[in-house]
Design a protein that fits this description.
16 strands, 24% helix, 2 domains, seven-stranded parallel beta sheet, six-stranded antiparallel beta sheet, TIM Barrel, alpha/beta, single chain
């Protein structure tokens, strides 16, 4: 299976549970259509317990970091680069990220408007960033000799930042993991002793360490359950040891939330709303989630649009960076996060304590959130002009503000030539700085003098109706 095809299938699997039916197989998901999944929903129910922090924080930092940052090509360097295990493990002998400072990571996280952090404790290569007693292939047996997860958890606890831990079920280093050459697996290794039961003992003990030795943990982010194995005991252990931890849907049961990845064509991207928790994930780099020394980066507009698309539909968003082998977040990645943070600070009120409304304005590329008598209009996709007709709204707001600048917006209700047949006037937003601010998402705040269900009124066509000017 090609990488792109695999991602599409995985994204579909992540999306379908959000709409009330947790899938059992990729093939079933691929039969779903966007039309089947775009009905308006009444909102995402909360958990009603300590996991509800998830709905308050909304925007998090994802970090892919490990010895793959040393060659600086891809977090799946061993598999994609066809590097023999005996050669790959030698990178551990070079692991010495002397510039790693978790406080600097958290400073940047906060500048970006992010409220929590998720880090790879063990990626597919099997190298562990904590002081695990289950394998010697870990950070303590390197020149660095420091517990990365311990350092980060201490910093997070001090600053009251929720910490979530990524863990790959697939493992290219452990002799008991049954590498069979399936997707994201090595071919069978002659020196291995494949034994799934023994590997699960190893996995459970590692997860127990993570859930026991680092204080309060707010999430477990599984990845690559290639055998699609179910085991309720793993989840029960996490629930008992870390009751505030949210668990994603890539592990040993359906978990708490879905995980649409990047911007591949999948139902979650175009759905009007969700009825189960969602955390979309994306990386600032186009090629890799880990550090890539000559990475190509997404534009601000692409990333901001993606973030807005999920936050305005009551979902969470996890944006990834890949630190260098020294432990430093690359300059360009950090600059992207800071620019996103500036935008988010300007428009953040449009995501806080609001309801989503996917049916109020039926315009491609426009999303809406609302609170009492205030409507927020998100121009999620680049506008084709400097004005937009907010059909079917035909009531003039008391006040209209462009959150990106804090300046008033020019609004009018009148008849446009294109609506001559119905003779119905509509609310228009005019003279937007569409060219000057083309690399972002514009959000308009419209404050009305009446409940929002009354801002669309039936009007009889009249001969003296005000025309556009």
């Amino acid at each position: 299976m090609k990488r792109r095809d695999l991602i599409k299938s995985t994204a579909a699997l992540a999306a379908v549970p959000l709409f009330g039916q947790w899938a059992n197989a990729y093939s079933n998901n691929e039969k779903q259509t966007v039309d089947d999944l775009t009905t308006k929903t009444s909102g995402i129910p909360r958990f009603g317990d300590g996991r509800d922090w998830f709905f308050e924080k909304r925007f998090g930092m994802f970090v892919h970091w490990g010895i793959y940052s040393i060659p600086g090509w891809h977090e799946q360097h061993q598999w994609r680069g066809r590097v023999p295990r005996a050669e790959y493990v030698k990178f551990a002998e070079q692991w010495n990220p002397k510039k790693f400072n978790p406080e600097e990571w958290l400073d940047l996280m906060e500048e970006a408007g992010m409220k929590y952090i998720t880090i790879t404790t063990k990626h597919h290569d099997g190298f562990c960033l904590w002081d695990t007693k289950q394998t010697k292939f870990n950070t303590m047996n390197t020149p660095y000799k420091k517990d990365v997860i311990g350092m980060l958890s201490d910093a997070c606890h001090k600053r009251k930042v929720p910490l979530c831990l990524y863990y790959s079920i697939a493992d290219w280093n452990h002799p008991n993991y049954p590498n069979q050459g399936r997707h994201h697996e090595l071919p069978p290794q002659p020196q291995d002793s494949p034994d799934w039961d023994k590997y699960m003992v190893f996995l459970k003990e590692q997860v127990r360490e993570l859930c026991t030795n680092y204080g309060e943990i707010h999430g477990i982010w599984w990845d690559m359950n290639v055998p699609v194995y179910k085991d309720a005991s793993v989840m029960a252990m996490i629930r008992k040891l870390q009751p505030k931890a949210v668990i994603n849907n890539r592990g040993f049961d359906d978990g708490d939330f879905g995980t649409p990845e990047r911007d591949y064509d999948n139902p979650a991207t175009e759905a009007k709303g969700f009825d189960k928790p969602v955390e979309a994930c994306q990386s600032v780099g186009m090629e890799s989630w880990g550090n890539k020394k000559d990475e190509d980066y997404y534009t601000d507009q692409h990333l901001i649009s993606s973030i807005d698309r999920y936050l305005s539909r009551d979902a969470n968003y996890l944006l990834n960076v890949g630190p260098t082998s020294e432990g430093v977040i690359p300059t360009e990645a950090a600059s992207i996060l800071r620019r996103i943070g500036k935008w988010k600070k300007q428009v953040d009120e449009s995501y806080q304590n609001v309801q989503t409304d996917s049916d109020l304005i039926i315009i491609p590329g426009v999303l809406t959130t609302k609170r009492e008598q205030t409507l927020y209009v998100h121009l999620n996709k680049p506008t084709t002009g400097n004005g937009i007709k907010l059909k079917p709204i035909n009531v003039l707001p008391l006040k209209a503000t462009l959150l990106n600048t804090g300046k008033p917006i020019d609004c009018v209700v009148n008849l446009c030539p294109s609506d001559h047949a119905s003779q119905q006037p509509y609310l228009r937003i005019r003279n937007l700085p569409a060219n000057e601010m083309s690399n972002t998402v514009l959000v308009a705040k419209l404050e009305f003098d009446r409940p929002l269900e009354q801002i669309v009124q039936t009007k009889k066509p009249e001969a003296n109706i005000e025309l556009t000017k």
